[in-house]
Amino acid sequence: MSWFEAVPAKVPDDDAPRRGARRRAGRGAPRRGATCSDTTLAWHVAAPDPRLGLLAELEQEGLEHLDDYDLVEFVAAAGRLSSWANRLAAAGAAELAGRASMTPRVDTALALNLTPERVTGAELALRLGTTPGSARRLVRTGLAFRRDLAPTGEALAAGQIDAAKALVITDALYEVPTQLALGVQEAVLPRAPHRSTRQIAADIRAAIIQLDPAEAVTRHRDAADKRYVSRPKPLPDGMAGLWLHSTATEVHALYDSIDSAARTARLAGDPRTLDQLRADLICQRVLRGECTVGATRPAGASDTAGQPGAVDSASTAGTPGTCLPGIRADVRVIVPLSTLIGTSDEPGELAGYGPIDPATARALAHGGTWRRLVTDPATGTVLDVGRTRYQPPADLAELVRHRDRTCVHPTCDTSAWSSELDHTTPFRPGSSDGGRTAAHNLGPLSKGCHLIKTHAGFQLEQPSPGEFWWTTPTGHRYTRQPAAPIPSLDPEHPIHAIREDLAALDPPDVPPVPRNKGPATSDDPGPPPF
Prior knowledge:
The protein is mainly alpha-helical. Among the domains are: 66-225, no CATH class; 394-480, no CATH class. It is built from 17 helices and twelve strands. The protein has helices at 15-28, 54-61, 68-97, 116-128, 132-146, 150-157, 163-173, 178-188, 197-211, 213-224, 248-267, 274-288, 337-340, 358-365, 394-404, 447-455, 495-503, and strands spanning 228-229, 233-235, 239-241, 244-245, 333-334, 348-350, 354-356, 420-423, 442-445, 459-464, 467-471, 477-480. A three-stranded antiparallel beta sheet has the order 5-6-7, with helices on one face. Strands 10-11-12 form a three-stranded antiparallel beta sheet, with no helix packed on it. Strands 1-4 form a two-stranded antiparallel sheet. The radius of gyration is 27 Å and the shape is globular.
C-alpha cells in the first residue's frame, strides 16, 4: 500500500489505564494554562507525535522533493488523517454524553431542555475552547454515528468524506424519522466524496422530497416556526454580519426586491457597487425608514463617518414611497476621553463587538447620549447594596455590564447587555451565607449559560470582581479572567511597546485604495463565514 492510500494504523487498546484513572484524572485536571498534575495521564496533554505518521516523515524530509501530482495527493492524505481524528473525537463525545454526570437532576416539569447532549456540549466547549453550540454539534454527530448514520461515520473514519461533509449529513438527518434517514443516507452517501457541502445539502433536500413528500411538508412547516435573525457576528475591520433564517420564498423575494432597487439606483448613476447598494438599502429601509436609493450621490461627496458604503443623509432626502417607521437603535460605545477630544488615537470599543478604530469611535460618540459611571477609585466597583434587594439598581447593573462586557462563560461572547445578571452566590435574603446584590457577586450570563450554571451541575465562583472560576461536572476547572481593559486605560499594556516598534519602521508606499470602485456585479459569495 502506498502512502497515497495509507490509512491510520489501529490505535493500541489502552482502555484499561483510562478506566483506572478516569475519576482521578477528572479531579486532577488542571485549569486552563496551568501545569498538569501528577495524577494526569500523559495522553491527556500530549501533542501529536510527528514520528508516528508517514505523512509527517515526508514533511520532515522536505515537501520540496515531491512533484506537483504528489503534493496534491499529500494534501488529500492529510485530509483523510484529519477525518479519522474527527471520527475519534465524535466517538468520545458520544460516550461522554451517556455518563451520569452529563444528566442534570432537573424536574422535567421545568421543561428547560437541558438534555445530556446539551450539558456534554457545555462541558467540551470549555476544554476545546469553542462555543457550546459547536461542541454540541460534535456530540450530536457522535450520537448519530452510533445509530442511523453509522455508514456516514464509517466513511468519515476511512477518510472518504471530511468532517464538514459529515456535519452536513448529520445536521440534516439527525431528527428525520429512522427509515427516511436511512433511505436518504443510502441515496446521497455514495456520491458525497466528490460533492461539495452545498451540493450534498441540495442532494439531501431533494431526496427527502422524493422519498417522503408528506414528511417534507411537515418538516418545512415546523422549520418555518423557528425562523429568526441571528445576533450580530463580529467580522474583521470593523464589520459585522447578520444571518436571516426564514422560508426560502420569503428570503428570495427579499433579495430580489433589494437587488432590483440596487440595480435601478446603479442605472440612475449611483457610483456604489451593487454589493454596497444592496447592503446600504437594507439598513436604510429598516433603520431610517427609507424605501429606495433613488437619489444620486453628488460627485466627490464623502461617506458618513468615513465608512465606505455609508449613506449621506442628503443623498436620499425626499425619497418617495411607503416606508417603515424609523427605529431608534441603542448603541453603546466606550471611548477614551483622550480619543474623544482628539489628543490621541486610542481605539474605542463597541459593546457586543469589540475594538473599533478611533475615527469610527468618535463618529459614533458624536451626538450620543452620555452616561457618567462613577466608581470607587480604589476598587473600581460601587458600594455593596446589601442582601435585602434582589434586583440590582440601574447604575450597578450598568457598571457590572461595562466591567465584564460579555457573558462570563469563558467561550461565550454574548454581549453583557443581551445577558441576564446572575448572582454568583445565590441570593438569599436574611441568610448569613446568602449572596449580596453587589458588583463582586454579580456577572452577566447568557440565557443558555445561566441554565447550565443553575441546573446542570456547573459551579461558579467569583473570587474577585470580574474574575470567574468555573468547575464542570467532570471536575475540570477553568478561569475567565476580568475583561481586558482598553489599552489606553492601561499604560502597561504591551500594545504600546509594539506600536512604538512599528512606528519606527518606514512604512511602504502603498497607493490609497479608491472608494466605491469595483465591478457593477459580483458573484454570489455564498452564506456568511460564521
